[in-house]
């Protein structure tokens, strides 16, 4: 699955789980928003998709770039980075302080199989 297909898969999961206005926006100039949707209770959700291999962790620079746009530019109520990998400790620390939710490979698998929560829960 390439990056675009991964973004489309995340958009599908959002739609499947009751979001409305779902749009896979991932393209150059998207200011970090790969999927924008509205949760079942109407909150704006902005997802950044990171399709990385198992040895390529999402780092703090990735988080800082997204953190600089998700709330101010996109006005997200809920911002999350979803990856096929994991996060570095610095990325996790930044996300905690910035209020960004993290969905690693295990949480993604749980969301996809309906054994775990969607990022907006």
Automatic annotation (TrEMBL):
Q: What is this protein called?
A: Restriction endonuclease
The processes (GO biological process) annotated in the record are: DNA restriction-modification system
Its taxonomic path starts at: Bacteria, Bacillati, Actinomycetota, Actinomycetes, Pseudonocardiales
Q: Which GO terms describe its molecular function?
A: DNA binding; restriction endodeoxyribonuclease activity
Among its keywords, does the record have Nuclease?
yes
All copies of the Restriction endonuclease type IV Mrr domain together span: 1-111
The protein's matches in InterPro entries, at most eight in alphabetical order, are given as: Restrct_endonuc-II-like (IPR011335), Restrct_endonuc_IV_Mrr (IPR007560), tRNA_endonuc-like_dom_sf (IPR011856), Type_IV_Methyl-Rstrct_Enzyme (IPR052906)
UniProt keyword Nuclease present = yes
């Amino acid at each position: 699955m390439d990056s675009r297909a991964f973004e489309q898969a995340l958009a599908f999961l959002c739609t499947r789980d009751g979001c409305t206005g779902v749009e896979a926006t991932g393209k150059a100039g998207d200011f970090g928003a790969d999927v924008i949707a509205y949760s079942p209770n109407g909150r704006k959700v902005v997802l950044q998709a990171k399709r990385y291999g198992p040895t390529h962790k999402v780092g703090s620079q990735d988080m800082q770039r997204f953190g600089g746009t998700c709330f101010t530019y996109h006005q997200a109520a809920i911002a999350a980075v979803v990856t096929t990998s994991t996060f570095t400790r610095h990325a996790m620390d930044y996300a905690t302080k910035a209020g960004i939710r993290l969905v690693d490979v295990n949480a993604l698998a749980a969301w996809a199989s309906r054994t775990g929560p969607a990022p907006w829960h």
